[in-house]
Amino acid sequence: MSRLRIFDETRGDEPLATHADHADIARELAAIGVRFERWQANAPLAPGASQDEVIAAYRSDIDRLMREQGYRAVDVVSLAPDHPDRAALRRKFLSEHRHSEDEVRFFVAGAGQFTLHVDARVYEVLCEAGDLISVPDGARHWFDMSESPYFVAIRLFSNPDGWVAQFTGDDIATRFPLMTPHASAARART
Hints:
The protein has 190 residues and is of the alpha+beta class. Helix content is 22%, strand content 34%. The chain has helices at residues 22-30, 51-57, 59-69, 86-93, 183-189; strands at residues 3-8, 17-19, 35-38, 73-79, 97-98, 103-118, 121-128, 131-135, 140-144, 151-157, 166-167.
């Protein structure tokens, strides 16, 4: 289940609020400029579907966002618990950073946790299959996929070169909860 927890930036041990209803999550995130939507596949996807099959299943939503926001590139990223570089990849995304373009991810399968640092608040968003999140350009954030990652995500970019981060140097991410291995990841391994 998708979840939003909101913290004071000085206290990573006690959330100020927790939301599990998708409409509540979308409303709270919209207030800070973050898009959060639910998408449905236009066609069923088999496990191990190719990048082209995944994109085709969500083509109408992808095209809508590309038209609305001017995104120029789309791809699919997939990470499994047995990936040999999973620990290095996790470390790369766990430091607070920002981008000069929106960071747009749609979770086709599995889960990932985006954490945004906005003003004096920290917004921890657990995204699961069916969730689209668009973190606006310039927003300070970090991403966690847990020590046992499992997700398939569609990524949309304005810059065809893809993901380019500017790290802030702030250690705030070390003071907030990490993502724990998730039930959807356990189901994917069985």
